[in-house]
Design a protein that fits this description.
The complex is a heterodimer of chains A (about 325) and B (about 350). Chain A has about 325 residues and is an all-alpha fold. Chain A contains twelve helices and two strands; from the N terminus they run ααββαααααααααα. In chain A, strands 1-2 form a two-stranded antiparallel sheet. In chain A, helix 11 packs antiparallel against helix 12. In chain A, about 50% of the residues are buried. The longest helix of chain B has about 35 residues. In chain B, helix 3 runs antiparallel to helix 4, helix 6 runs antiparallel to helix 11 and helix 8 packs across helix 9. Chain B has two domains: about 90 residues, no CATH class; about 210 residues, MetI-like fold. Chain B has about 350 residues and is mostly helical. The chains are: A mainly alpha (about 325), B mainly alpha (about 350). The interface between A and B is large, with 109 and 100 residues.
Chain lengths: ~325, ~350
């Protein structure tokens, strides 16, 4: 692009003499430039509009709420007086998403390492496509598959964990041993769904590792794993962190898959192998059809909270990537 | 890299005093077979059960045996290397499992359902617990909504991408780039809530296919902008400069030279974007209304769509509805996968050089 700048005046006008270029030419350029810039501004307006419009409904919802919005667990916005709060939703959303991240991150990094540095070069692209296809499966299909296939098949693992590791509070099941509709179920399905984005981002970064770093490590007699540990993983650290955050962002907002797997309940519990729990997004999907006026506003208020959380997580992830991109020239 | 390794393993196999000792050829497969055999023996004697348990157990057995042997013969560093290598390969297999499982399950459950009748009939007048009915109304909805979404998203996304690559400098371009990236992470249910607030609560319109398409647009634009931007950046500057040298104005250069050159890649990005949004369910839940009848008018009255149909049928208690959900899932997954594969082959066959 550096060569290009010579041809441009600071305004981006074509660098032709005014009398040579007829006025229609410059008008066309001005129109086109305004059109493209206008579309870009429109996109920013949409982002701002999401915040503004959701906020405009959040205010009346909070005014109608008779209890503290942030500490209340239950969800009865349409009863009189209106009682609802996001404590249980926030807990369930964070728990299921972090569980998903915990499961998906090691696998995603492993897959990225495999495709970038272990698989035969000729196969690598094809295998990468295969993992990307996982991202193409619609979330409602994952939900159906999770509920009717994965969850029944996970009962064995869940009961194994409960019986052998029940002394850890997470795996204790004092109240119920059906092992369905649990946070663990939701976490595993979410893990499958965020795996493609984690492995895709990590793969990009691992492929950017300078060949010189890798060859230097191997020239010192490092084994392949030592090369990964000394050259590839340190270089890709910020990429791995941002992939984790992007995956977290996906998991936080996932709706129908979670709605199909979990039931509507508003408890806060550490026991991930017991039924119960709910998330922001699933709660909106499950409660929407029953909601009346205040109920809709309450759901929009919870959606606003979800929007802010995912916005912060995604901005942090993008910021980490952008910062790394600025430094990568020095490597 | 591969060459280096091949060389080093050959010299190591010659086992001179300079090279360290390595496991003899065939040891690793041998250990694998031994691990499977031992696991089979244990599983036939002891009261363990399940094929999955067998696979996991023999895998662990192999891992332990390989690491121990390598530790004894080759030393700690090579043992760790082999261990890590096995783990990396295993993660890939683990990642493949859900994909294969989903595809197999959808094929197995859905293929009984999908037939001519299923594809050409709606759910109108099909009782709650009756068998039969079909997804024609949902396919009509999905196609119309996909079409409207594309008609709005594609021009908008192309203009933004052109701005970012051809004109954009300074603050506006930087913030647009940043927020396009951030927008790709917006949960689909939030996009749905936003359009619901604007379209239904503020303007007072009814729920419709068009409203759903608006929400899908918010989800589709950022993905198409990103991919188009990448493709436009790949167009060589020499082409632009040649056009300017001939006195072609910039906007005509972009429309006649830059975009046509990048077109295959842009089309790939658009198709991937469509494939992503037509599988979205959450916004449809809020905005579509849902109906059992065929509705060709996306602007008037509730419509159906495949993802919403799946969600709706899957939530019903009777097995006939669940079967229909699987049938529709097969249809949806076929549409999405075909879009994906065609998009990727467009990219492969007509790559920008």
């Amino acid at each position: 692009m550096t060569q290009m700048t010579e041809f441009r005046s600071p305004q981006g006008e074509p660098p032709v003499e005014p009398q040579l270029a007829g006025s229609p030419v410059r008008a066309g350029d001005r129109i086109f430039r305004t059109l493209t810039a206008g579309s870009s501004v429109f996109l920013l307006v949409i982002i701002a509009g999401i915040a503004v419009f959701l906020f405009s409904r959040t205010v009346p919802a909070l005014q109608a709420d008779s209890v503290n919005f942030f500490t209340e667990r239950t969800w009865f916005p349409d009863s009189a007086p209106s009682v609802f709060g996001i404590a249980a939703l926030a807990w369930g959303t964070l728990l299921s998403s972090l569980l998903a991240l915990l499961l998906a991150l090691p696998v995603g990094i492993g897959v990225a390492l495999f495709i970038a540095h272990y698989a035969p070069r000729r196969l690598a692209t094809g295998l990468g496509y295969l993992i990307d296809l996982l991202a193409a499966v619609p979330s409602v299909v994952f939900g159906l598959w999770g509920r009717d296939f994965l969850v029944p098949n996970m009962v064995g693992i869940s009961s194994f964990l409960a019986e052998n590791f029940g002394w850890i509070p997470f795996f204790a099941t004092p109240n119920s041993e059906t092992y369905t509709q649990t946070m663990f179920n939701a976490g595993v399905v979410l893990a499958v769904m965020i795996l493609p984005i984690i492995s895709a981002v990590c793969r990009e970064v691992f492929l950017q590792v300078p060949q010189g770093h890798i060859e230097a490590a191997m020239a010192l007699g490092a084994t392949r794993w030592e090369t990964m540990r000394m050259a590839v993983l340190p270089f890709g650290r910020s990429g791995m962190i941002s992939s984790a955050m992007l995956g977290l962002g996906r998991a936080l907002g996932e709706t129908v898959a979670v709605a199909l797997i979990l039931s509507t309940s508003y408890g806060i519990s550490l026991h991930i192998l017991e039924p119960g729990g709910n998330t922001f997004a699933a709660n909106i999907a499950l409660q929407y059809s029953f909601a009346q006026d205040t109920g809709i506003d309450a759901l929009i208020a919870s959606g606003m909270v979800l929007f802010v959380i995912t916005l912060l997580v995604n901005m942090a992830a993008r910021w980490i990537i952008a910062r790394r991109a600025a430094f990568s020239g020095a490597n | 890299m591969a060459l280096l390794q091949a060389d080093s393993s050959r010299t190591r196999a010659n086992a001179t005093s300079l090279a360290s000792r390595t496991l003899p050829r065939g040891t690793v497969p041998g250990l694998g077979i031994a691990a499977c055999g031992l696991a089979a023996l244990l599983f036939s004697v002891a009261p363990f059960g399940g094929f999955a348990g067998y696979v996991v157990f023999s895998g662990l057995l192999f891992l332990v045996a390989q690491t121990a042997t390598s530790f004894a013969v080759e030393g700690r560093r090579h043992a760790v290397d082999r261990f890590a290598s096995s783990l990396v390969h295993t993660t890939f297999l683990i990642a493949l499992l859900p994909l294969l499982s989903v595809v197999w399950k959808v094929l197995a459950q859905g293929s009984d359902q999908v037939n001519g009748n299923f594809l050409t009939h709606s759910m109108r007048n099909v009782g709650v617990s009756d068998a039969g009915g079909g997804i024609y109304h949902s396919m009509v909805g999905t196609l119309l909504q996909g079409l409207i979404t594309s008609l709005i998203s594609i021009p908008l996304a192309l203009l933004v991408a052109v701005y970012l690559v051809e004109y954009g400098t300074g603050k506006l371009a930087r913030s647009v780039t940043f927020f396009v990236d951030v927008m790709t992470g917006i949960p689909s249910i939030v996009a749905g809530l936003f359009i619901y607030t604007v379209w239904v609560l503020t303007f007072g319109f009814e729920r419709s296919g068009f409203a759903a398409a608006l929400a899908l647009t918010i989800l589709m634009v950022p993905t198409v902008v990103r991919s188009t931007e990448e493709m436009l950046k790949l167009v060589p500057n020499e082409l632009r400069e040649a056009a300017y040298a001939l006195g072609v104005p910039k906007w005509r250069t972009i429309l006649r030279i830059v975009i046509p050159t990048a077109l295959p890649g842009i089309i790939t990005g658009i198709m991937l974007g469509i494939a992503r949004v037509i599988g979205e369910t959450a916004p449809l839940l809020l905005l579509l209304g849902g109906t059992d009848s065929i509705n060709f008018n996306a602007l008037d009255g509730p419509q159906s769509a495949l993802p919403l149909f799946i969600y709706d049928q899957a939530g019903r208690p009777n097995p006939e509805a669940i079967d229909r959900a699987w049938g529709a899932a097969l249809a949806l997954i076929l549409i999405v996968m075909i879009l994906n594969l065609v998009a990727r082959s467009v990219a492969r066959l007509t790559r920008v050089r």
